[in-house]
């Protein structure tokens, strides 16, 4: 004959074992899951890859468009004739360095990681967190002209606030 104490201990032991294995399973699944804090975009897109666009690029068209203006007032302004130059170095690994030399003498430099999502080029600045990626349209012509277009937040009108700004670049190697 068993005592109630042993049956109670056995029930508790089963309950403790159940919770222990549930906890172990949860920890194992968490350890095996992908880290959401990483840039996780492939180096190959639907039509282009980082290998296709790697190298040193220099702009011959640097277009900006203030998207905060009403539609009938928005136009793309080419700053290249005024002296704006963008240089871009894209490595086979997807790492990049960009340098914007603006007409008034300002220089903006940044670096980060590139990848693809379908036909879009995905860019993450080293200063941003995963999830803050920017998506650009990208094209590469037979004449080796790289076209990039997207939206960035810039102080386009120099009023101290960031505005959604369309950017278009045409570059050659």
Descriptive overview:
With 173 residues, the protein is α+β, with helices and mostly antiparallel strands. Helix content is 19%, strand content 41%. It contains two helices and nine strands. The chain has helices spanning 4-32, 50-53, and strands at residues 55-66, 77-78, 85-90, 95-101, 107-117, 120-125, 134-140, 145-154, 163-172. A hairpin with a 5-residue loop joins strand 4 (95-101) and strand 5. It starts with a helix and ends with a strand.
Number of strands: 9
| Broad shape | globular
* Helix and strand composition category: alpha+beta
- Give the radius of gyration: 26 Å
Number of helices: 2
In short:
The protein is an alpha+beta fold. It has two helices and nine strands, in the order ααβββββββββ.
List keywords for this structure.
173 residues, alpha+beta, 8-stranded antiparallel barrel, 2 helices, 19% helix
Secondary structure elements and pairings:
Blueprint: H1 4-32, H2 50-53, E1 55-66, E2 77-78, E3 85-90, E4 95-101, E5 107-117, E6 120-125, E7 134-140, E8 145-154, E9 163-172
Antiparallel strand pairs: 1-2, 1-3, 1-9, 3-4, 4-5, 5-6, 6-7, 7-8, 8-9
